[in-house]
Amino acid sequence: MALSIGKVYELEKELDSVFSGLFGANWEEVNKAAVMKCDKATLTNLVLSAVRVLGKSKETMQSAAACYEAFAEEVMLHQNSVIQLQDELLKSKSEQMEAVQTTVKSEIRSFSDVVKKGCEDRITATQVKAAVKSAVKDDDRRRAVMVFGLEESANEAVQEKVKDVLKVSCSTARLLVKDCHRIGAVRTGYVRPVKATFHSNETAALALKCGKNLRGTRFSGVYISPDRTREEREERKGLVSQLQEKIRNDPGQYHYISNGTVSSRERGTTPSPRTPASSSQPPLSTSIPPSSPRTSLNPATA
Fold it and tell me: Do 280 and 208 form a contact (C-beta atoms < 8 A)?
C-alpha cells in the first residue's frame, strides 16, 4: 500500500467509527466499565474491527518506513550532488584565479617591456579622452542636419518650423525631431541656420535624402545639409569656389560637386554611375540659386 496523507486520515476515521459504533464515544473515552457492559457479540465485533484496523495500521507503518528510506536515499544523493558541485565550483574558481594571475603577470611583463624600451608612441590619458570626445561629437553630427534659409522671427517656435519643412520634404514619412536651435549670434539682416537633431542616424539620413523635394515648394529657398565640422566646411568652401570658377569659364557644361570633387558633363546627359550624390542635399551645380542677402551662411559652404 502506497503511503499518503489521505490513507492516514482514512485509517483515523475508520478507528473513530468503530469505537463510536460500539460505545457511542471515541476511543479516548472508552473505559473498563463501558467494555464490561458489552455482550459477547459486541465484543466479537470489537475484536474483529480492532484486528482489521491494526492490520491496516501495520501496512501504513510499513509504507511509511519504505517512504522514509527512499527519502533518506534521495537526500543522500542530493547531498552528494551538492558536494560534487561545491568541489567543481572551487576547482573552477581556482582555475579562474590562476588564469587571472597569469594574465596579470603577462600584462605586467608586457608593460614593463614597453617602459624599458622607452616606447615613443605611448598613448596618454589626454589623447584617449580626446579620441572619445571626437567619437561622441561625430556620432552627434551624424544624428543632426543643418537647415539654411528658414525664415527667422522673434519668439519663434523653431522646432515647429522645422517640422513644417520636413512634412513637405518627407511627406510619406514622419520624422521625429529631438531638438532644434539656431546657430550663431543674432545679427540684423541675416538668417541664422538651424541645427536639427534626430533620435537616430537613419532619421537624419532620410531628412537629408528628402531635402531635394523642397525645390518648387513654398520652402524652395530652404536647404538641408549635413552637420559638417569646421574642416569639412573649409573643404566644402574650396569646392564651391572651384565650381563657381568652372561655371564662369565654361557655362555650356553642367558642373556639380560629387564625392568630394568638382565634375562636369554635357547638359542633358546621364551622370556617371560612379558619381552618386555626396550627401542627401542636392549636388551643387550650375543651377545654384542666388544667395539670399538675409542668409548668414551659404548651405554649400557650411
Answer: yes
The C-alpha atoms of residue 276 and residue 172 are separated, in whole angstroms, by 23
Q: How far apart are CA 230 and CA 1, in angstroms?
A: 90
Higher pLDDT, 255 or 118: 255
Backbone angles phi, psi at 222, to 5 degrees: -105, 135
DSSP single-letter state for residue 288: P
DSSP state of 150: -
Report the alpha-carbon distance of residue 147 to residue 182 in Å, rounded: 9
Region 221-235: mean pLDDT is 90
Three-class SS state of 148: strand
Q: Which three cell numbers stand for residue 144?
A: 543632426
In this prediction, residue 258 carries a pLDDT of 83
Residues 6 or more apart whose Cβ sits within 8 Å of residue 242: 262
C-alpha cell at position 14? 475508520
What is the percentage of the chain residues whose pLDDT exceeds 90? 26
Give residue 151's identity as a one-letter amino acid code. Answer: E
C-alpha cell of residue 278:
555626396
- The H-assigned helical ranges of the chain are 5-23, 32-36, 40-117, 125-142, 158-169, 201-210, 230-249
Of 14-28, 47-61, 218-232, highest mean pLDDT: 218-232
Cell matching residue 257: 560637386
Q: Which amino acid is at 167?
A: K
The model's pTM is 0.47
pLDDT tens digit sequence for 59-113? 777 677 777 777 777 888 888 778 888 887 888 777 777 777 777 777 677 666 6
Most confident of 17-21, 115-119, 121-125, 210-214: 210-214
Q: Residue 135 is placed in which grid cell?
A: 567619437
Q: Distance (Å, rounded) from C-alpha 205 to C-alpha 222?
A: 17
Altogether, the residues listed in the chain come to a count of: 302
